[in-house]
Amino acid sequence: MPRTTPAPSLESAGIFHREYLLVTLGACALVFLAAFESLAVTTIMPLVSRELDGASLYALAFAGPLATGVIGMVAAGNWSDRRGPVGPLYASVAMFVLGLLIAGTAANMPALVAGRLVQGLGGGAMTVTLYVVIARVYPPVLHPKIFAAFSAAWVIPSLVGPFAAGVVAQLVSWHWVFLGVVGLVVPALLMTVPALRGLRGTPGGSPSGTRGTSAPEDMSMPAPHKSSGTHRLAWAALAALAVLGLNLSARLPVAGGVVAVAAVAVALIAVRPLVPQGTLTARRGLPSVILTRGLASAAFFGAEVYLPYLLVERYDFSPTFAGLALTGGAVSWAAGSAVQGRLGTRLDHRRAVRIGAALVLGAVVLVLVTTLLSWPAAVAIAAWVIAGGGMGLMYARLSVMTLALSSRDNEGFNSSAMSISDSLGGALSLATTGIIFAAFPTTAASFGGVFALTAVIGVALVVIAPRVGGRR
Hints:
- The chain is mostly helical.
- The chain has a single domain, classed as MFS general substrate transporter like domains (Growth Hormone, Chain: A, Up-down Bundle), CATH 1.20.1250.20.
- It is 76% helix and 0% strand.
- The chain is built from 18 helices and no strands.
């Protein structure tokens, strides 16, 4: 039987009540492992690129998984709305593990990128299904707490992940950074099994209840684009191909610019059926929530991927210690998320998003100035601590708002739309920064161009952030 809203005693007990304990631990463990892998790969990729002579595919190794993740998100969203999140979660974890195995056994950069593409497909689907599980299992009053727990699941990986990945890569082999995660994923999934029993979709798309929200109807639940699941998968595949084409356009000496512009245009056209109407025009309410998520991802991750690279190339950091910059950002992300969870309704959603956006922009600008003026590396590392705090404030609230503005029959669509915006924003940003990085004749200019672009995206984020609130 589908779960109904628990009694108030369960709501007040929190996410670690025996009713939710296993699913909380299992879901957080999956987030933990995905976080460890993400931070670890970002740390070791300069070393991997050097060993496999893969500098030309460096950006694609990050943007590619985000692009294929869009396909996984759409498939998981459709599947979850029809049949519930159980099947999609099992399938997504299997794809994630397969990608890890391919990347962990790669002997050249194209093979590693192929593994990352498969991994992204599974990771994107897993993100959406976990959001649907949250919507089906937990009452709305506990959503801020479970999202704060997800952010907290980044704390230990952020403390030990980058450092451990650097040590493993230097003393053993970077291959084990991928392979070491495989044996931990299945036990994490098994902990969620008891809570998944009985969860079902809403066949035929008929609503079986709506989420409580005080937002006006005209902006809270904009209609999704009228396209079937097959059509949405086709649009997702087209968006992913456009991002991959954008990554490869830099390798075309004559027509590269034209291909890049066309790829961006195709990606924006393809994403329209995958998100609520009005997203690309920043309509107030849910559309702006979705767009803000994408801009935040583009500004933050577009810069973060190059921060360890900057520390290794310009400041002669080892990969082990370059990863400490990511540690500071991830810890402050978790801290910011914990703060917003503790404040609850005392900090309204719109203000949390505005503060977070401003912090991210300020941090990226600091990194840019550090690069241009050759300031000490400590300034850039401290700036990333600020950026992480801003993301912690913002991300959890955007997730809560997305579920609050969804009904039971479209929570899969809206969850996938948020994740698609997240991934596609990061993928387009990384693809573009890869082009910019390769376009300049000197390393200093390349890093300056990358951080200048992410600063411009940060400005757009600050402008759009206030629109997540509805019309008064």
